[in-house]
Amino acid sequence: MRGLRKVLTPFAPDQSGAVSVLYSMGALTVVIDAGGCTGNICGFDEPRWHTARSAVFSAGLRDIDAILGRDDLLIRKLEWAVKAAQSDPASRNRIRFTALVGTPVPAVIGTDYDALARIAEKKTGLKCVPIPASGMKHYDSGAEKAWLALFQKFAAASEKTDRVGVIGYTPLDFDEQTRADFDEAFGPCTVYGLDTGVEALEAAGGVRENVVIAPSGIAAAQYLERKFGTPYRVCDPFAGALLRPQTDGAKKILIVHQAVTASSLEALILARNPEAQITKASWFMTPASCGSFIALREEDDFTELVQKGGFDLIVADEVMRDLAPDCKGLWIDARHFAVSGRTEKT
Amino acid sequence: MSTFYTAAELARRGPDDIPESFSTARHLVYSSPATLAFNSPGAEGFGVKRAGLAVPGSVMLIVSPGCCGRNTSEISSIPQYRHRFFYYEIQEPELVTGQHLKRIPEAVDEVCRSLPEKPSVVMICATCVDALLGTDFDRVCRAAEARSGVKVRPCYMYALTREGKKPPMVQVRQSLYSLLEPRTRKGADVNLLGFFAPLDDDAELYAYLRGCGVRNIREISRCEDWEAFQQMASANFNLVLNPEARAAADDLSERLGMPYIELSQLYRIDKIHSQYQALASAIGGKIDDAADLAAARQAIETFRAGHPGLRFAVGECLNANPFELSLALTEYGFTVSEIYATAQSGYYRWIDRLAVLSPETRIYCNQDPSMLFYEAEQQVDVTLGKDAAFYHPGKPNLAFNSDRQPFGYEAVQRLFRELGEVLG
Predict the structure, then answer these.
(1) Three-state DSSP class for A131?
(2) Which CATH number is correct for B4-30+295-423, 3.40.50, 1.10.150, 3.30.1560, 2.40.10?
(3) CATH: 3.40.50.1980, 3.30.70.1280, 3.10.50.30, 1.10.1740.10. Which one for B43-177?
(4) DSSP labels for A168-201?
(5) Does B92 reach chain A within 8 Å, measured CB to CB?
(6) Contact A345, A284 (CB under 8 A)
């Protein structure tokens, strides 16, 4: 039945993707919800919450606020929080802008995010980035909106350097990679969202090339190409970690992951095993630059794909195994936090 | 710097002038561990999702945008909840047309048919969007029941209404106990309402009730199957141990003619004694608690002798009311430097007394946005509650938040025994 899930828990939603992008950027982020959506982000989807604090708050909406559309109260709350942050010596310079992230409740009442952001800028004196998430789309949709909005708001022309810009990093896709891993992969690079703030966004016009490591970053890279002429390419430099001896010998392979990782892995496998027939599938966005994909929407789509595909190797998060009980092929666990919520530790 | 008020300041302002810091509807909300324990309970504690599956053999269909079911995988990892959660993900066009409501009966039917055994009940977990739409879930559940032939009940995970008259954790208890069907009541049967895990086995309340002639003491969490759960309908009266179960007890009183008595989880032993005597008088029995009272007093004195002048920080993620517990610790001769909890008018019976005994105790609201910038300024030797540990990470901590609930003198003894273990 369409929309019914009997095995998989829902994937990371768009507001989690948006907050994940904003997390280390120096934003005071307000998730416009009653509390549960922020709870899901800070308590589950954002593994950094327990190790590196960020100013992510819930709007604390109540039914009457939503019914009456009390935007003025939301703005007052935001002003108060900005004042509290600016009066704290340790955080005074850390909060550089504010961000408003949507959830199902403001989506239902038709919130005008751009208007809210304009009022917020006037009242707080800080730039405001609105991200109209709805809780009904996947994390990549929210992350895509956030990347684009951030670069549109802050990126400026600057002198070209030798640095590479890396767009698309969030722990929802890359929960174990560190700064050292990126340095090893790209040399001197700016990994937006890993350990960079607004300054890096402002200097985005100066990088010599952008590398997009997740589909959510493609729209932003295209914007930067149009705006500053910065070329971009799409690849996940860590996909090789999924190669195993079995990928060299398999004949029919199914890869299920986010599109950039899946296509990078496909290229690596084909380089070593040119005879392999590879099928790529994804639950998430599949940009044309990543090649052809089978779009998965319902649990039955995956079950049917495995039943009919005759694959001798599947590379996918192992939470999907229960959807393919008759699968006889080998399985390589391509853990994907946005799908299963599993981390290296769990 | 984080916003706080001393006990003296709060008492001076009084319950009609509680600072905005303690009103979560007036400011942005910081996701402290205490906030998350309420807003995003996972494998620890009981939120609507876990509580909604308290009835044996039940399953849950979460009808919501995908985001609301996301963190359920944490609960699903607990063995007793595996394969008990199902999801119907609402899409935007369905919200506009209300089409999702028409599809719920079909979804319930498909869930039931996919299971090896028919569930005892399907709980439909509804979320904020349906709160806004004003969805009549009783009607939807009746339609689903008719189609599937299985009992279907709603439970409302309406975070939007958390400060209303019937917040989600009140409504979920009403929903669960609405499943009890009328039976002949038995004079010697009693239900304990309020928690989703049993009291500690050695809680003296069990013995006291038996001493008063009660033969069957039932708790929802000890019911192994549907029939055992239905036997709760034969109780002569209910004991309400958590105020969040009061509305359910009112319903049972009205629907099944079952009266109830409320008891509180307390740590001041003189008040525990008074409460037991009041209970004895209400049920026409006799409770001799002299030995347990003496044992609790001894536990306090032994601990105090080993740890004189101990300074506490007390949070709200624990099996106690933080203000009552802080007052108890203060009366026992300890210092409570800081409390992290939400001051409410109903707590002034403890705050006023605390203001007399310990006026400088600082009271912080866990949800206040300024708590993001909390820096420890007060001297603290030990913390109580997971949230207090968060603010003083290097200090010995007793979480004291097990699912199984301590109660009465046994709770006091357990508290000081476990504190002794933590402090070595």
Answers:
(1) strand
(2) 3.40.50
(3) 3.40.50.1980
(4) ---TTT-SS--HHHHHHHHSSEEETTTS--HHHH
(5) yes
(6) no
Asked if the C-beta of B235 comes within 8 angstroms of chain A's C-beta atoms, the answer is: no
Query: Residue A311 maps to which CATH number?
Result: 3.40.50.1980
- Determine phi and psi for B200, rounding to 5 degrees: -55, 140
Q: Mean pLDDT in each 10-residue stretch from start to end of chain B (424 residues)?
A: 95 97 91 82 78 95 95 86 94 90 96 96 95 93 97 92 86 96 96 96 97 97 97 98 97 97 98 98 96 98 97 96 98 98 96 98 96 91 96 96 96 98 94
What number is the average pLDDT over the span A272-285? 97
The DSSP line for B191-255 is EEES-SSPBPTT-HHHHHHHHTT--EEE-GGG--SHHHHHGGGG-SEEEE-SGGGHHHHHHHHHH
Query: Out of A30-39, A147-156, B153-162, which region has the weakest mean confidence (pLDDT)?
Result: B153-162
Of B24, B31, B90, the CB nearest to A56: B31
Instruction: Please give, rounded to a whole number of angstroms, the shortest distance from the CA of B369 to a CA of chain A.
Output: 6
Instruction: Give the integer Cα–Cα distance in Å for A214 and A236.
Output: 7
**What are the E-state strand segments in A42-96?**
56-58
> Among residues A182, A189, A286, A290, which one has the least CA distance to residue A237?
A182
CA distance B183 to B181: 6
Residues of A in contact with B25 (CB under 8 A): 60, 62, 65
CATH class of B189-263: alpha beta
In the predicted structure, residue A138 carries a pLDDT above the cut 70: yes
Q: Residue A81 above 70 pLDDT?
A: yes
> A6 vs B129: CB contact, 8 Å cut-off?
no
A interface mutation test: which of B2, B22, B29 has the most A CBs within 10 A? B29
Residue bearing the bigger pLDDT, B85 or A89: B85
Q: What is the largest CA-CA distance in chain A?
A: 64
* Local confidence band at A345 (pLDDT 50, 70, 90 cut-offs): low
B35:A39 CB<8 A: yes
A42 in reach of chain B (CB within 8 A)? yes
- Does the pLDDT at position A335 exceed 90? yes
Residues 106-125 of B with CB under 8 A from A: 106-107, 110-111, 114
Looking at the complex, does the CB of residue B68 fall below 8 Å from at least one CB of chain A?
Answer: yes
Q: Would you state the pLDDT for residue A346? A: 60
What is the model's pTM? 0.94
CA B384/CA B422 separation, integer angstroms: 11
Predicted confidence (pLDDT) per residue in A226-252, tens digit: 999 999 999 999 999 999 998 999 999
Domain that holds residue A175: 164-234
CB of B35 less than 8 A from some CB of A: yes
Mean pLDDT in chain A?
Answer: 94
- Residue in A34, A42, A136 nearest the CB of B128: A34
Cβ distance of B132 and A135 shorter than 8 Å = no
* pLDDT at A254 exceeding the cut of 70: yes
Q: Between residues 145 and 204 of chain B, which touch chain A (CB distance below 8 Å)?
A: 157-164
